[in-house]
């Protein structure tokens, strides 16, 4: 297990920047999630750490080793790919033991360590099967066991849950968290799914166009988004952004935008008059789309409130739930 | 459904007629009484059926020895071609894009050069090395994969494998040779078998190179022995056709053994980790 440090790492593809001067410290044993929309460079960050791409500038350190120029095989990292990248002609056991076999580890030891890793990843009963005979979730476990078996310094996980159906994804997400707690390894987890990021990450690094937007705990990312992008990207539905506080009855400084999450909008007897334009029930709650003072908003309210399209309601919020962003730069501003 | 089956059957029948009929006449002709002129109308079963042509053809020009020679050459050249072509094709996948483009262009250029244009320079080269009248000039092209087309076919096959498989190998510190042996080759097995078969057939049927390089009757390969047969007794068609059957049969047998490897997906290799 080792800490990981990226210092001023940049990567260009034929002159097009994919990662720009990224500084990132991952603590020993931490599970850090790199979150961002597709094309933001998050997978490139992972591939740079793995050595599958060569950094255009900057340094990458694992523990106190500078691995910037090392080949992937000498960095002692392992990776779980989005497609799992299992070898279709090998059995699960051969897949898991592949790295040990090419390193010429003794056969008996390979067998023992494969069995151990498979037990930890929960796939010990699948060892004789080939990938084609396994379900998506089972393949995922094999890929995890293959990453575990070498006891690497760092685990890199590239959207490992994106090929699973919703139920399995939630279940595997929880198992991954338990696995991290049990193994205590340094893990870098890339995803575009904010729920995964918030539930799994000890810290989250939000990336956009190859640039780090914010690095913080899920709590910080959620409560104090560093800018408009983070505020809108994390949270579903996306945070309401208003050109002024008028629509929710708040007085914001001139030139500042007001951001309010849907669950912090109150529909009641007091406040600004608003018209319901759409109601989306989501189980126990409903997303109510509103128009107030010429602005579109979404509020999340209990389903039993029973709002209908065309209803007139009164909308309010409070200052402690409202975020302020600079109208031009989008950076977070303090309330004065 | 029924319509589709009908047209497909018709197509198959046409292919069988074009490919199969000459083979039928080849075998039928080889069973005719020697010395008789060719039949005026096609003849499926000759009267009388004579098997002696095979024995005579084999004795007359040493077809057995020639078959052994052909087999030695093809059995060396075909696996060697597969090995070298697959290495070259795999190297093309691994190297940087710019070098790859240059090499691919050079390969295509090499394909444009007619082999006959190189016959004299190659002969001069082998003679100066003292290798004429040995099997070396017949096997040596396999050391450069025999044909750029084999390399290109392997390159395309290796490139079709998901790139994450190679990434996974690199993370496990597998060397290029290990990746080739443990992952890439097993996953393109049908391609390898097909190319091996092609190389085998090409070597087996090669007439020009043995004609140029081999003088010693003991070293003659089957196509040369067949020519000797034609020269010894130019009008004795049954004898000639019997020799042709002897020359064709082994290659058909090799195909029958090999076809199951490339006509059927093997061990889930069709599923490529996606």
Please render the helix and strand layout as text.
The complex is a heterodimer of chains A (336) and B (274).
Chain A: E1 4-13, E2 16-26, E3 31-35, H1 42-50, E4 57-62, E5 65-66, E6 77-80, H2 92-102, H3 107-121, H4 136-148, E7 154-158, H5 166-183, E8 186-191, H6 194-200, E9 203-208, E10 211-216, H7 218-223, H8 228-233, E11 240-242, E12 256-260, E13 266-268, E14 272-282, E15 285-292, E16 295-302, E17 312-316, E18 322-326, E19 332-333
Parallel strand pairs in A: 3-8, 3-9, 6-7, 7-8
Antiparallel strand pairs in A: 1-2, 1-4, 4-5, 9-10, 11-12, 12-18, 13-17, 14-15, 14-17, 15-16, 18-19
Chain B: H1 2-30, H2 52-61, H3 63-94, H4 97-112, H5 119-128, H6 136-139, H7 148-160, H8 163-171, H9 176-187, H10 189-205, H11 208-213, H12 222-232, H13 237-263
Helix pairs in contact in B: 1-13, 2-13, 3-7, 3-9, 3-10, 3-12, 10-13, 12-13
């Amino acid at each position: 297990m080792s800490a990981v440090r990226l210092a001023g790492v940049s990567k260009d593809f034929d002159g097009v920047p994919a990662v720009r001067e990224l500084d990132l410290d991952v603590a020993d044993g931490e599970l850090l999630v790199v979150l961002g929309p597709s094309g933001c460079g998050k997978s490139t960050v992972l591939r740079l750490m793995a050595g599958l791409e060569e950094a255009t500038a900057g340094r990458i350190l694992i523990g106190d080793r500078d691995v910037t120029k090392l080949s992937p095989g000498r960095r002692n990292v392992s990776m779980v790919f989005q497609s799992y990248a299992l070898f279709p002609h090998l059995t699960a056991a051969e897949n898991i033991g592949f790295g040990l076999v090419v390193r010429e580890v003794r056969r008996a030891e390979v067998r023992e360590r494969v069995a151990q890793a498979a037990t930890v990843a929960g796939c010990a009963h699948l060892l004789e099967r080939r990938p084609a005979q396994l379900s998506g979730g089972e393949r995922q476990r094999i890929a995890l066991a293959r990453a575990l078996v070498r006891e690497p310094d760092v685990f890199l996980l590239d959207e490992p849950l994106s090929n699973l159906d919703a139920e399995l994804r939630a279940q595997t997400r929880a198992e991954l968290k338990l696995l991290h707690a049990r193994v205590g390894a340094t893990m870098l987890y890339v995803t575009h799914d904010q729920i995964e990021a918030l539930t799994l990450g000890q810290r989250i690094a939000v990336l956009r166009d190859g640039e780090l937007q914010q690095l913080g705990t899920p709590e910080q990312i959620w409560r104090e988004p560093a800018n408009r992008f983070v505020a809108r990207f994390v949270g579903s539905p996306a945070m309401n952004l208003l050109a002024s506080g008028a629509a929710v009855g708040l007085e914001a400084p001139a030139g500042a935008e007001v951001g309010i999450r849907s669950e912090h909008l109150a529909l009641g007897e007091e406040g600004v008059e608003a018209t319901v334009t759409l109601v989306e029930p989501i189980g126990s709650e409903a997303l109510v789309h509103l128009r107030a003072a010429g602005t579109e908003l979404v509020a999340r309210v209990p389903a039993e409130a029973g709002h209908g399209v065309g209803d007139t309601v009164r909308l309010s919020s409070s200052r402690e739930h409202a975020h302020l962003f600079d109208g031009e730069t989008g950076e977070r501003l303090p309330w004065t | 459904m029924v319509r589709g089956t009908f047209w497909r059957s018709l197509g198959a029948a046409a292919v069988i007629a074009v490919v199969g009929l000459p083979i039928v006449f080849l075998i039928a002709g080889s069973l005719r009484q020697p010395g008789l002129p060719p039949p005026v109308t096609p003849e499926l079963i000759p009267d009388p059926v004579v098997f002696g042509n095979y024995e005579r053809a084999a004795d007359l020009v040493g077809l057995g020895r020639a078959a052994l020679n052909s087999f030695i050459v093809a059995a060396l050249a075909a696996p060697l071609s597969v090995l070298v072509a697959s290495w070259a094709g795999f190297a093309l996948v691994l190297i940087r894009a710019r070098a790859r483009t240059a090499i691919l262009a050079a390969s295509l250029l090499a394909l444009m050069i007619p082999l006959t244009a190189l016959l004299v320079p190659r002969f001069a080269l082998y003679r100066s090395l003292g290798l004429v009248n040995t099997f070396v000039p017949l096997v040596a092209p396999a050391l450069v994969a025999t044909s750029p087309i084999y390399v290109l076919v392997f390159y395309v096959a290796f490139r079709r494998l998901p790139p994450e498989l190679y990434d996974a190998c690199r993370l496990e510190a597998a060397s290029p040779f290990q990746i080739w042996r443990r992952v890439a080759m097993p996953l393109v097995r049908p391609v390898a078998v097909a190319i091996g078969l092609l190389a085998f057939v090409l070597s087996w049927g090669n007439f020009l190179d043995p004609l140029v390089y081999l003088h010693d009757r003991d070293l003659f390969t089957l196509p040369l022995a067949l020519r000797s047969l034609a020269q010894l007794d130019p009008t004795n068609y049954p004898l000639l056709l019997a020799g042709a059957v002897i020359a064709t049969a082994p290659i058909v047998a090799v195909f029958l053994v090999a076809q199951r490897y490339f006509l059927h997906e093997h061990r889930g290799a069709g599923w490529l980790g996606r």
